[in-house]
């Protein structure tokens, strides 16, 4: 009995199709069929019922399947243990990031240096809101995320702050606020505000600060890309609440006005499951990111 035979059998059983199993395994279908037949001959029983379009388990196959799955999981665990002891890391990792991150950190550079250090690891990247990224972390769909910090540490998640900067009011050059150096947050109670979408860390920070100042913000426009927020403000459509560095990057279109009473800060943090990633490759990614990105003050 070979591990390859067990792998082919389990894949066919889980996908209920020799064709889909061959595609998933990147093997020609006749090869999959031949190896499963060889396993059945060795065991002396049919494991799969091929009499209909959908491949089904026979009673013997249904009994064997959990044990075959356990055997493959045990072999994978042995390989992970050996990899950890030898320092050899392979597999796949996925990092998630908020769409509104912009150029706050050099994410391409981070991933490139990780690939150079661990060329055997396949890297995946996904963009979403902080809320959805946290859900993906809990579910184990991603290993590491760059999220907007809201001030409260989510349960079961470890945070490592990497960016912390003030939010400012960005307005068009003809806006009444354009000639001022600073504005109190409460003064924006009657203004049309331009902000990031629901579920982002910065949006949560803005809403909490406005509530503390005694008003509910009137969000006239929202977008996932913070550069779009600056462009909308530059066209005179409202006051964009964005990080100071982003306002400076769009100074040709907007005027930066400091917000005080109170000051508001936007933060980005690395986030991962407190009980650790599920693979050595995931743990290596977390360690690499912490080493490359300095902790914010």
Explain this structure.
Residues 1-58 form the HTH lysR-type domain. InterPro entries: LysR_HTH_N, LysR_subst-bd, WH-like_DNA-bd_sf, WH_DNA-bd_sf. It comes from Streptomyces noboritoensis. Pfam families: HTH_1 (PF00126), LysR_substrate (PF03466). Belongs to the LysR transcriptional regulatory family. The protein is of the alpha/beta class and 297 residues long. It has three domains: 3-86, Arc Repressor Mutant, subunit A, CATH 1.10.10.10; 107-157 and 271-292, no CATH class; 163-267, D-Maltodextrin-Binding Protein, domain 2 (3-Layer(aba) Sandwich), CATH 3.40.190.290. Helix content is 42%, strand content 25%. Strands 3, 4, 5, 6, 7, 8, 9, 10, 11 and 12 form a ten-stranded mixed sheet that branches. Strands 1-2 form a two-stranded antiparallel sheet. Helix 7 links the parallel strand 8 and strand 9. It is elongated, with a radius of gyration of 26 Å.
